[in-house]
Amino acid sequence: MEQKLDISVVVPLYNEEESLPELVAWIRRVAEENNLSYEIIMVDDGSTDNSWSVVERLKSEYPAIRGISFSRNYGKSAALYCGFEMARGEVVFTMDADLQDSPDEIPEMRRMIIEEGYDLVSGWKRKRYDPIGKRLPSKFFNLTARVMSGIKLHDFNCGLKAYRSKVVKSIEVYGEMHRYIPILAKHAGFKRIGEKVVEHHERKYGKSKFGLERMVKGYLDLISVTFMSHFGRSPMYLFGGLGTLMFLFGGITALWIIVEKLYSQSHGLVWRGVTEQPLFYLALLAIVLGVQLFLAGFLAELINRRSAERNKYLIESKIE
Fold it and tell me: Which positions ≥6 away from 83 have C-beta within 8 Å?
């Protein structure tokens, strides 16, 4: 039987060889001072420096270290997904490898999970030491995510988070979805989501891996996760509903134009040919788009009904 630990700390890393020894020593000190059984799962996301060699060396000094090395760079979400699969802790933490997240926050965040009953506790870097080119887009992104998800978190993208074990075992993280784990958790039924102000440190080694392409991918994934949360099991409700409305609008408009022309013509009034009116072509476009949207919803519903995940539900408890 797999040994259950108090905490698992999942650390995705990419070219962070200088910071790893300090981070591991810091986590170990905090865990031992608080009498916590622990493991550190280091996921090397295809580093091109000596990060994996450092992890292998640290393993010989710290038996609590476990590791995964990707053959190439797959992204943070893939690293977290594999780390979550390995985790054996009652509470699972995620933490960036650049020493900007503080392991000293672990005991209090764990207490919030164990004693206050939260499913997920997200860090909030109220005071950040990142460049303004990273802070401003992050503020706008967090505002958008709050509005679209209804989850009142100030910092969705904070790398320091704590999860009840069953949360990370119940969600699938891919693409850039690591930013939206609170939304995925809420969709899976884990609605007790809390927040804690955490200490943020200046980057000590290396440079940030942040780029504009991450913002673009992040917003596309926000649209995806919002759609999946609301219509993932019933895509026909969205596409079929929009298609029906557009079809009715176009059909009624086209019929009105034809009837008006026939009425004016039969009563000797001034009339315009149906094909001479731009509105008629807009009505035809609405009809065509309506049919396409309806068919898209219908096909998506057929595919969804054949999915193996169609009737997979998270059961809290069961009596037989």
Answer: 10, 11, 12, 41, 43, 68, 94
β-pairing, 120-124 with 161-164? antiparallel
Give per-residue pLDDT as tens, 235-272: 787 888 889 999 999 999 999 999 988 888 888 887 88
Class of domain 5-231: alpha beta
Token pair for 29: 């000190």
Give the Cβ contact number of residue 25 at 10 Å: 14
**What per-residue confidence (pLDDT) applies to 121?**
95
Question: What residues contact 213, with CB distance under 8 A and at least 6 apart?
Answer: none
Q: Name which of 135, 130, 13 is nearest 65 in CA terms.
A: 13
Inter-helix orientation angle 20-33/51-61, to 10°: 30
Alpha helix segments (H runs only) across 203-234: 212-231
**What is the pTM (predicted TM-score) of this model?**
0.72
Torsion of CA 147, 97, 90, 167, to 10 degrees: 30
Q: Dihedral, CA atoms, 117, 229, 93, 215, nearest 10 degrees?
A: -140
Cβ–Cβ under 8 Å, residues 43 and 75 = no
List beta partners, residue 5.
Answer: 89
Inter-residue contact 32 to 40 (CB < 8 Å): no
Which are the contacts of 212, defined by CB distance < 8 A and separation ≥ 6? none
Single-letter residue type at 222: L
Burial environment of residue 35 by CB neighbours within 10 A (0 to 12, 13 to 18, 19 or more): exposed
Mean pLDDT of all residues in the chain? 83
- Token pair of 295 as six digits: 């068919």
